[in-house]
Design goal:
The complex is a heterodimer of chains A (315) and B (324).
Chain A: H1 2-29, H2 34-39, H3 45-54, H4 61-73, H5 88-123, H6 128-142, H7 145-159, H8 182-208, H9 211-218, H10 223-261, H11 266-275, H12 279-307, H13 310-314
Helix pairs in contact in A: 1-12, 5-6, 5-8, 5-10, 6-8, 7-8, 7-10, 8-10, 9-10, 10-11, 10-12, 11-12
Chain B: H1 3-12, H2 19-29, H3 31-48, H4 50-53, H5 100-135, H6 138-153, H7 156-167, E1 176-177, E2 180-181, H8 182-211, H9 214-221, H10 226-263, H11 274-281, H12 289-317
Antiparallel strand pairs in B: 1-2
The chains are: A mainly alpha (315), B mainly alpha (324).
């Protein structure tokens, strides 16, 4: 187990290094430098030259990359060029909380709603409930989540006036601000929730036909126990496989959702940093996201043995 | 008998009338898939004939000078913007007084053409990389699969945004290929770069299955080279999953483009894609909701049609999967 973990972490480190390299090369390929984007012509060519020299931007690229990696190993993400030389790590730390809370809320929504909906649709297969579920999830999956987000804002903020249009402001500052995240979290998670509920339904239907489910029923167990303890546990194996990709979808989707609802999070910061060619910020956000996605995949892989003990032995 | 059929015969036990015939029979039974295929065909015809079907040029503006010059110089000088749907403009006009119906038809064309381009890029990249990994030496497999791991772990939207920014308009300029501007193609190329690992893994897995089959041993013992095995025996056997994955890729590419356009990093060409139409029309939805609803509905119909069609193809081409 420990050996497996160590191997996974090592492989992740190599992957991260390559992601750093690709990001580094791409962002340096973006036309223009960080200073001419910001100065809007106020800085003279000579001043830009001196600034670039000061921050080592005129060094050969391999040297720049090695320096960057050296700092990174020490946990230093460098300075942001766009935000008057503030360290990227502290800027990201400020933005991280709203994004993290949004992600947690959305993930909770996806799992807590998607799986029960799927189970209920499978148990009452062919009922009006099943069909209603099918129609809703088909529609939700067929519309990009930014459309769902926009329509929600239109209905609940503009039409009904239940919430403020500037919903995201101050989200994450206090516990009282948490309800502001509900609409964004649902908009972000809706397509994933739909897909998860369909997958759960299919998986449950398959498992409910297994012999051991019939055995459990024949033993006289309550239907509830049969469904939850015997069927659901086995039906969850393919569902867990999907949790990794869903997490990645939520992370990248948050970029769009944050900008629609005006949440001051990491995703909104990334869009700004690409526009301003803020090298440090671009690298910081990409790394943060990549680490999050890889960590989620690792957790998902570690979850398998909990649901299916046979998976541990196969390793 | 071609290698195609040989491979399939192993799976199917040699159906009468050929493999494709059998697949077509199974596809026909899937009603949603047949309807979807018809919808796709109709949309494709509309997209190809957009020039003839659209009443106006998508970039033409229909500004009208007001009857009387307004006394207030700050008053709106030109009307013709945000016009309600009428016989003249079936879906009304947008914020620049352009005909929304014509723009939607062209948007459909551009999105479909660009998605097709993305599918071709992904298929070429994914199939060659996946096939090389499965048929080549062990070190190549390790190298290529680590590469796909990296591409997998890279947050895809970030990569698209970065690639789009890095490639810029510099390479191809403002040229256009078959009516699709190069900046649209560039964006879809960036999307393809994030989408090939799935295809590569799929092809590799399929090749490895076929590699372990008896017909491979038989062909090997007859002296078939690795290249011949890969191109004549394994590739046809992997065709079914490649076709299915390609079908599912079309709506995903269109969605990805719509998302990037929505953020504002996408395409700023005079000829719109469905994504840019949606992004543009958000701005005046309270004035004219049809302008927003129509491209969204077209997008959703495209998505569902390709999804159902892909499901139908999967069941028709791979009889091992069961129907729900």
């Amino acid at each position: 187990m420990l050996i497996y973990l160590a191997r996974r972490v090592f492989a992740s480190a190599v992957t991260l290094l390559l992601i750093c390299l690709i990001t580094f090369l791409l962002m340096h390929a973006v036309p223009g430098g960080p200073f001419d984007a910001r100065s809007e012509g106020r800085l003279s060519a000579e001043a830009i030259q001196r600034l670039e020299a000061h921050y080592g931007l005129n060094d050969p690229l391999p040297a720049q990359f090695l320096g960057l990696m050296g700092n990174l190993v020490q946990g230093d993400l460098g300075l942001s060029f766009a935000q008057s030389g503030q360290p990227v790590s502290s800027l990201l730390a400020d933005k991280f909380l709203p994004s993290f809370l949004l992600g947690v809320m959305s993930f909770t929504f996806v799992i807590a709603v998607g799986i029960p909906l799927g189970v209920m649709a499978a148990v009452r297969r062919g009922s009006a409930w099943d069909i209603a579920n099918l129609v809703t999830s088909t529609i939700l999956a067929a519309v990009p989540h930014f459309v769902i987000a926009f329509l929600m804002l239109l209905i609940f903020a503009v039409g009904l006036g239940w919430v403020d249009v500037r919903l995201g402001r101050g989200f994450g500052d206090s516990i009282a601000s948490l309800p502001r995240g509900i609409l964004p979290a649902i908009a972000l998670g809706a397509p994933s929730m739909a897909i998860l509920s369909r997958l759960t339904r299919g998986s449950m239907l398959e498992v409910l036909q297994e012999d051991y489910v019939r055995t459990a029923r024949a033993k006289g167990l309550r239907e509830r126990t049969v469904v939850v303890r015997h069927a659901l546990r086995n039906a969850l194996v393919p569902v867990i496989t999907l949790l990794g990709p869903i997490f990645a979808t939520l992370i990248t989707g948050s970029i769009v959702i944050e900008s629609i609802f005006g949440l001051p999070g990491v995703g909104a910061a990334f869009i700004d940093s690409v526009r301003q060619r803020d090298y440090g910020m671009i690298m910081g956000v990409t790394l943060l996201y990549a680490v999050a996605i890889m960590a989620a995949n690792l957790v998902v892989d570690l979850l398998y043995p909990l649901v299916d003990p046979r998976a541990a032995r196969r390793r | 008998m071609s290698a195609w059929e040989t491979t399939f015969d192993v799976w199917l036990g040699a159906p009468r009338g050929g493999v494709w015939h059998a697949a077509w029979r199974r596809f026909r039974r899937h009603r949603a898939a047949v309807v979807s295929a018809i919808v796709i065909a109709v949309l494709a015809v509309v997209a190809i004939g957009a020039d003839g079907l659209a009443p106006y040029d998508p970039a033409a503006q229909f500004l009208e000078a007001p009857a009387e010059a307004p006394l207030d110089p700050l008053a709106q000088r030109d009307t013709g913007k945000y016009e309600a749907p009428s016989m003249e403009h079936l879906l009304g006009t947008d914020q620049l007084a352009r005909d929304i119906f014509s723009r939607t038809l062209h948007g459909l064309r551009i999105s479909l053409a660009a998605a097709l381009f993305a599918v071709i890029v992904v298929t070429i990249l994914g199939v060659s990389i996946g096939a090389a990994a499965a048929s080549g030496p062990g070190w190549l497999d390790g190298l290529l699969m680590r590469t796909t791991d990296v591409a997998y772990a890279f947050p895809d939207l970030l990569l698209v945004i970065l690639l789009r920014a890095a490639l810029g308009d510099a390479i191809l300029g403002r040229s256009s290929i078959l009516g699709v501007s190069s900046s649209v193609l560039l964006l879809f190329f960036a999307i393809s770069i994030t989408a090939w690992p799935t295809m590569a893994r799929l092809v590799r897995a399929q090749f490895l299955v076929l590699r372990g089959m008896e017909f491979t041993t038989a062909a090997e013992s007859l002296g078939a080279s690795r290249w011949r095995l890969a191109t004549r025996h394994w590739l046809p056997g992997a065709a079914a999953p490649i076709i299915v994955e390609g079908t599912f890729l079309v709506p995903r590419a269109i969605f990805a483009e719509a998302t990037v356009s929505f953020i504002g990093i996408g395409v700023s060409a005079p000829a719109p894609s469905l994504g840019t139409l949606i992004a543009d029309h958000f701005g005046f939805v309270t004035v004219q909701w049809t302008a927003l609803a129509v491209p969204i509905v077209v997008l959703a119909v495209l998505f569902l049609a390709f999804q159902f069609c892909g499901d139908g193809l999967r069941q028709a081409l791979d009889p091992r999967t069961r129907r729900d």
